[in-house]
């Protein structure tokens, strides 16, 4: 794949866990072919400590991560988005701002690990499971995007990734 990096915004309501993990994983596995961002409709104002611990455990970068409003990406001067991916049903169902560039939208709904209850180990396991699911979807998305640089052509297949990685990867 050549040309400019594709801009991808991952959205969750709180922007403290899933969207943060997706941002880091796309930056990591996309190796400069993508510029990943994350935001929330009702940001928590901080990245969840278990998300940060998991990223550290996996040796992934954490600098510059923050929980922020999606309004930052609807303002003049914001990056022109190629893709918008919602990771929670709450954000997918909300009325979104008007995005510069009219990005292709897909929904990859995942259970919120930040809402997990139980022992510390059970909550950590919820984050590991979410991380694995996000990583599988990111890898499938990168494989699709290696075939074409046209976001419109990728739209139907990017949406399928949210229903199941195996379906979206072929």
**Mind telling me the CATH class?**
Alpha Beta
How would you spell out the order of helices and strands?
EHEHEHEHHH
The largest beta-sheet arranges its strands as 2-1-3-4
Task: Give the number of DSSP strands.
Answer: 4
Total tally of structural domains: 1
CATH superfamily: Response regulator
Assembly form of the protein: single chain
- Looking at the overall shape, the CATH architecture is 3-Layer(aba) Sandwich
CATH topology: Rossmann fold
Structural class: alpha/beta
Low-confidence stretches: 166-170
Please tell me the overall pLDDT.
86
Number of helices: 6
Descriptive overview:
The protein has 170 residues and is α/β, with parallel strands linked by helices. The chain has helices spanning 18-30, 49-57, 89-93, 120-145, 151-161, 165-168; strands at residues 6-12, 34-40, 83-86, 104-107. The model is unreliable at 166-170 (pLDDT under 50). It contains 6 helices and 4 strands; from the N terminus they run βαβαβαβααα. Strand 3 (83-86), helix 3 and strand 4 (104-107) form a beta-alpha-beta unit. It starts with 5 loop residues before the first strand and ends with a helix. The longest helix is centred in the last third of the chain and has 26 residues, at 120-145. Helix 1 (18-30) crosses helix 4. It has a single domain, classed as 3-Layer(aba) Sandwich (Rossmann fold), CATH 3.40.50.2300. It is globular and about 45 Å long. Helix content is 40%, strand content 13%. Strands 2-1-3-4 form a 4-stranded parallel sheet.
């Amino acid at each position: 794949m050549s040309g400019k990096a594709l801009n991808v915004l991952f959205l969750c309501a709180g922007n403290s866990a899933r969207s943060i993990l997706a941002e880091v994983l796309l930056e990591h596995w996309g190796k400069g072919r993508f510029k990943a961002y994350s935001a929330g409709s009702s940001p928590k104002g901080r990245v969840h400590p278990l998300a940060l611990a998991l990223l550290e455990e996996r040796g992934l970068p954490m600098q510059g991560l923050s929980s922020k409003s999606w309004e930052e990406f609807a303002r003049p001067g914001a990056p022109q988005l190629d893709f918008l991916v919602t990771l929670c049903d709450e954000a997918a169902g909300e009325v979104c701002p008007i995005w510069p560039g009219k990005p292709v939208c897909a929904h990859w709904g995942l259970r919120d690990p930040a809402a997990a209850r139980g022992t510390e180990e059970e909550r950590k396991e919820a984050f590991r499971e979410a991380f694995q699911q996000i990583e599988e979807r990111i890898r499938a998305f990168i494989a699709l995007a290696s075939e074409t640089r046209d976001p419109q052509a990728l739209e139907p297949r990017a949406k399928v990734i949210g229903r199941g990685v195996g379906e979206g990867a072929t």
